[in-house]
Amino acid sequence: MEKVVGIALPELGILNGRDCIYIDTVTQDDLDNLAFKGSINGLLAEKIRDERWIPYMLTFHRVIACFFSELDTYENMDTYGHLDFTDFNIVENSQWLANLPIREDFDKSLFKHYQLFTYDMVYNIIAVSFDLHADLPGTGF
Predict the structure, then answer these.
(1) CA distances (Å), origin 76, targets 17, 29, 81, 113, 124
(2) Has residue 98 been placed in a domain?
(3) Which of the four, 62, 65, 91, 107, has the lowest number of CB atoms within 10 Å?
């Protein structure tokens, strides 16, 4: 059975709230990386809880599938029932990943199903890993 689990980020903790994650740009490179750049509302980051906006870059590595939809349309799709999730999640036992016809020369066990909820959009991404760089004091963004 699928289970959606919030990802606790080391410097930020859990991100939660419709106004939490804003995206300025999305880029894809020729190495199958998908990068999101924007800002995070510090009031809605578990470990920050103040009024600053935190610039970030979130990169997914070895992306083999991505689906995105406008938020209200996604809620109407009833894909995951009532949407009570945090803004950055991993979908354990993902049916989408289980049914995805991945190339035979790829090790399916390496891939994970991530969800990213932004103010306007929801992204579902199948990738091997991610990293997040946030512009916090002392992090050298």
Answers:
(1) 19, 32, 9, 20, 16
(2) yes
(3) 107
79-122: pLDDT as tens digits: 655 456 799 999 999 999 999 999 999 999 999 999 999 988 99
Domain hosting residue 45, numbered range: 3-134
Asked whether residue 105 is assigned to any structural domain, the reply reads: yes
Tens-digit pLDDT profile for residues 22-67: 999 999 999 999 999 999 999 999 999 999 999 999 999 999 999 9
Domain count, the chain: 1
Contact indicator for 127, 47 with CB cutoff of 8 Å: no
Q: Is the CB of residue 139 less than 8 Å from the CB of residue 48? A: no
CA distances from residue 95 to 38, 80, 99, 117, 123 in whole angstroms, order as listed: 30, 11, 6, 19, 16
Q: Is residue 139 part of a domain?
A: no
Residue type (1 letter), 1: M
Q: 71: pLDDT confidence band, cut at 50, 70 and 90?
A: confident
Measured CA to CA, the distance from residue 115 to residue 29 in angstroms comes to 20
